[in-house]
Amino acid sequence: MKIKDMPIYVGKRAYDDNRKIGLPGTLIMPESKSDISLIFETGLNGHHQDYIDYFGKLLGNDFNIYINEMRNRGLWMVDQSPDDLAQVDEIIRDITETDKVFYIGHSMGMDIAVETRIRHKNDVKGLYGICAYPSIGFTRSRTSENRKGSWEEKIIDSLPLISFLSYPLKNSKINDPVRFAIAENDEVLNIHGMRNNARRFVEFFSQYPKSTSRIFKGKNHCFNNTKYMFSPFNRDEPEKLVDDIIKFVYCTIL
């Protein structure tokens, strides 16, 4: 396995800006050449190093995987993230010499991955969302009426800061094969071990024509077994999430 700390340089103000800034990231490649590449977008405030040991290295046995950290870790200038990810995609395809590409996103990273796919129309074979959510308001809603939305959801999602910081999945049409990994004890998305609440997410995501979902028992927002343990990512029983991703990739390709 080859592991390389590799920042990728993208346009500072726009896709084709000659002035560049570097996005931190890590490229992991298996010893035997793979014709499949995974491009992973970290979540809000995510550090790419936190996703290497118990996630990237395990997937790197089968695939090329690039772990991309959003500019400013997604804390501001999020509106440029889809253009950033599209440039990352272009460079990783050249390096790995393959067009069999999957996007994986953690939390807000899934919003960016989906918006990138829609905006740039890249040839992506599938999408995998880890702790993804329809919108910020959805995670704070206490209603079971997914299609209409509650008053809490509508008010929160209409706030200027919330609108500026995200590309909510509830406004996106996903026609690609997509799978959602839902953490049963996700304290960030307000699930907290309430299986019925987790089912709300499954029900919502089922509207996408090529969608499947799985609830992972006992997992928190960063796929650990201890509440508020956000780093490193996927440390506890890491094979459960990794095996699900591997199965999704191979089933989709075949």
What does the model show?
The protein is of the alpha/beta class and about 250 residues long. The protein has helices at about 50-60, 80-95, 110-120, 135-140, 150-160, 160-165, 195-205, 240-254; strands at about 1-5, 10, 20-25, 25-30, 35-40, 65-70, 100-105, 125-130, 180-185, 210-215. The longest helix is centred in the middle third of the chain and has 16 residues, at about 80-95. The model has no long low-confidence stretch (mean pLDDT about 90).
Overview features:
254 residues, alpha/beta, eight-stranded mixed β-sheet, globular
How confident overall, as mean pLDDT?
91
Count of helix runs:
8
Order of helices and strands: EEEEEHEHEHEHHHEHEH
User: Could you give a short account of the major beta sheet?
Assistant: 8 strands, mixed
Percent helix, as a range, is 25-40%
β-sheet strand percentage: 15-25%
User: Which shape, going by the Cα principal axes?
Assistant: globular
Spatial sequence of strands, sheet with the most strands: 1-4-6-5-7-8-9-10
Low-confidence stretches: none
Cα distance spanning the termini? 24 Å
Structural class: alpha/beta
For the secondary structure, the number of strands is: 10
Radius of gyration (Å): 17 Å
Write the layout of secondary structure elements.
Blueprint: E1 2-5, E2 8-11, E3 20-23, E4 25-29, E5 37-41, H1 52-59, E6 64-68, H2 81-96, E7 101-106, H3 108-120, E8 126-130, H4 136-140, H5 151-158, H6 160-165, E9 178-183, H7 195-205, E10 211-216, H8 239-253
Parallel strand pairs: 5-6, 5-7, 7-8, 8-9, 9-10
Antiparallel strand pairs: 1-4, 2-3, 4-6
Helix pairs in contact: 1-8, 2-3
